[in-house]
Amino acid sequence: MGETTTIKTDDGQFAAYVARPSNPKAPAIVVIQEIFGVNAVMRGVCDELAAAGFLAVCPDLFWRIEPGIDITDQSEAEWKKAFELYNAFDIDAGVKDIAATIDHVRALPEVNGKVGAVGFCLGGLLAYLTATRTDADASVAYYGVGIEKHLVESEKQAHPLLMHIAEEDQFVPKEAQALILAQLKNHPQVEIFTYPGRDHAFARQGGEHYDAADAKLASGRTLAFFQQHLA
């Protein structure tokens, strides 16, 4: 079980879920939410990372719109709410809040100074932007939506980025995937894995398109990536 902490910024403060590892000095990972807020799925990701030896923190990035969003993908009403939040979300402000979270956890005495980030869906885009705009030591993007609109930012990326792309992603068309691969496949700091036959959110437990085998494969690659760059 995790706990809740508060991150303070010049614009205000917001809550974040924190899961702590058993080891006394550990790297940290910022878990970047989907469009459903800091829900059970995101808290579960944090708990799994903590069990693997990382201090994991998931900030409430919707706090500027409506604090405390915690919904699922299991009803039409929740999907409607999620897309309303997505459409109202300020991406630039969200990245600034992630940067503030990185600064907060990096300063914790129980953190070894290394901080990574992993994001899913909307969070996948934000993880990519975290790699290009912040000093995160390593970032992982799962099926990020809209990355193709920000590819020019890869020119200033200085830290490692791992990307998981679902080849049949209904929210990332083939044309967008082709642009991403063309721009980033030879980038010295980018590693990309694609998953044939997989749709968006194939790693979301309980989701319509969840695939246990590829979710496990992607998770193993993610953990190995973080162990390499954050140890």
TrEMBL record:
Its EC number is 3.1.1.45. It is an enzyme of class 3 (hydrolase). Keywords: Hydrolase. It comes from the Bacteria. GO terms for molecular function: carboxymethylenebutenolidase activity. InterPro entries: AB_hydrolase_fold (IPR029058), Dienelactn_hydro (IPR002925), Dienelactone_hydrolase-like (IPR051049). Residues 14-230 form the Dienelactone hydrolase domain. Pfam families: DLH. PANTHER family: ALPHA_BETA-HYDROLASES SUPERFAMILY PROTEIN, CARBOXYMETHYLENEBUTENOLIDASE-RELATED. This is Carboxymethylenebutenolidase.
